[in-house]
Design brief:
The chain has 144 residues and is of the alpha/beta class. It has helices at residues 2-7, 21-34, 51-59, 76-84, 133-143; strands at 14-18, 40-43, 68-71, 97-101, 117-122.
C-alpha cells in the first residue's frame, strides 16, 4: 500500500497514529515507503475511541498541514470515513486507505459536519491478481 502511495507521489504533512503496536508498525512502514520525514505522533487517544474523538483530534490540528494521515482501527475509522464523505464504504478492510479531499481553510470545519470528496479508496486485496508494473518495481527494489 505504501508503494501505491509513493507511486502517486502522496506524502502527508503529518501522520497521526494509534499508539497500539500494530498501528505503529503500519504507520512506520507507510511513512518509509512514502518518504515521509516528519515525526509520527502516536496517540493513545486514537485507540478504541468514538468516531467523534477522531474528528476532534483532526479538528485540533494546525492549519499549516494540508495532508494529514490517520492510522487507526475499525470500526472507528470506517465510521469517520462515512461521516466525512457522501460515499458509504462500509467496513474498511485491514490496511485500507481512503483519501478524502476537503475544501476547507481550517481543520476545525470537520467538527461542523463538513463533507469531503473521496479521491481514492484502496485495499490490499485489490492488488491480489493485478499489481501495476510500477508498484512491482518498487517492491522488487525494496525487498532485495
Amino acid at each position: 500500500m505504501g508503494s501505491y502511495l509513493a507511486l502517486r507521489g502522496i506524502v502527508p504533512d503529518l501522520i497521526l497514529s494509534s499508539s497500539s503496536l500494530r498501528a505503529q508498525k503500519t504507520a512506520d512502514g507507510l511513512a518509509g515507503h512514502m518518504g515521509y520525514e516528519g515525526k509520527i505522533h502516536y496517540l493513545s487517544e486514537l485507540y478504541r475511541v468514538m468516531p467523534e474523538t477522531v474528528l476532534n483530534i483532526l479538528a485540533l490540528q494546525d492549519d499549516q498541514h494540508d495532508r494529514i494521515m490517520v492510522v487507526g482501527h475499525n470500526p472507528e475509522l470506517s465510521e469517520v470515513a462515512d461521516r466525512l464523505t457522501e460515499d458509504h464504504i462500509g467496513k474498511m478492510p485491514a490496511l485500507g486507505i481512503i483519501a478524502i479531499r476537503f475544501d476547507i481553510d481550517s481543520w476545525d470545519a470537520l467538527e461542523k459536519g463538513t463533507k469531503g470528496e473521496t479521491e481514492f479508496f484502496i485495499f490490499p486485496k485489490q492488488f491480489r491478481y493485478y499489481m501495476p508494473r510500477q508498484i512491482r518495481a518498487v517492491l522488487d527494489r525494496t525487498s532485495g
